[in-house]
Amino acid sequence: MDRKLVRSRLELEGIRLPAFALNPVIEVLTQHESVRGFQSTQLPEAALKSILTAARSAPTSSNLQAYSIIVVRDERRKRRISELSGNQAFICDSPVMLVFCADIYRLKYITERQGHSFKADTLEMFLLASVDAALAMQNALVAAESLRLGAVPVGSVRNHPAEMAEELGLPEGVYALVGLSVGYERKGVRRGGKPRLPERITVHEEQYSAAGLDEDLAAYDAEMISRRTYDGRRVSIAGEPESAELDYGWCEHTARRCTRPETIAASSSLRENLREVLERRGFSLR
User: Fold this and answer.
1) How crowded is the C-beta side of 213, counted as CA atoms within 13 Å?
2) Tell me: the pLDDT tens digits for 131-161?
3) For a tag site, which of 47, 55, 81, 129 has the least CB within 10 Å?
4) Residues near 13 by Cβ (< 8 Å), separated by ≥ 6?
5) DSSP H helical segments within the chain, as ranges?
């Protein structure tokens, strides 16, 4: 990794902190950038063990540890995961793909083995397992980046949940929440971390506040437009002329993605039946 190309959010936003408020962990966290290009170099086993141990050290509600991690290195399986996840080439290129799963299979098994009836099939349990898996993924991401590896979370593993479950051999009560491709980054793939919404929009003191929202959104939009962040990524609207003139920034892009559920997954056939699949797989959303 060329450290000269890495700029932290502190630097990007001109945030100056005293020495006692800075350390290597903060540096790694604020330098995050998703990397979508990898070398063919294999990941050392010690590095993978370090990443997995960090993931397993994440907070977990009531110590239920309602998640599982599938480590995928097989080339054929990575190709199949790529196909199910929008044919994203970096999944095949990365030496390892970690799939973080919400897992209540193990909890059901233990409950029944101990002679009790499992009655925790609720929306709360679904959320608990999903949060557990997400926290484990974030720990793994930070661990990988602290080792100067490239990594990118892959939410599109949810595009075809039933097929993904079959490919990974997931039992009832387990679903693939998010993937993480990890490896040595390929030269020239970094474009710089994306600007984040102004702090006042997402950080609130004591109570939620929408004060200054339009002003802050306008400033953020202007920055994203000037960076040409969404060039070639315009979400189409039925009936809209292809040559329609519009300052296309974060607000318009985000609004268009929220006009219908399928635009979040970029296709009308993806994730639209996620609830039904999850319920068939043993999760309750009631």
Assistant:
1) 7
2) 999 999 999 999 999 999 999 999 999 999 9
3) 47
4) 199
5) 9-12, 24-30, 45-56, 75-84, 89-93, 105-113, 123-146, 161-168, 199-202, 213-226, 250-257, 274-280
Amino acid at 219: A
| Spatial distance between the Cα atoms of 165 and 272, rounded to a whole number of angstroms | 17
Instruction: Indicate yes or no: pTM above 0.85.
Output: yes
Helix 75-84 crosses helix 161-168 at what angle (to 10 degrees)?
170
Whole-number Å distance between alpha carbons of 270 and 37: 25
Write out the H or E segment, with its range, that includes residue 236.
none
The residue written with tokens 């929440």 in the block is 177
| Domain boundaries defined on the chain | 1-31, 34-191+269-280, 199-264
At the top level of CATH, the class of 34-191+269-280 is alpha beta
pLDDT, tens digit (0-9, with 9 covering 90-100), for 185-213: 998 888 778 899 999 999 999 999 999 99
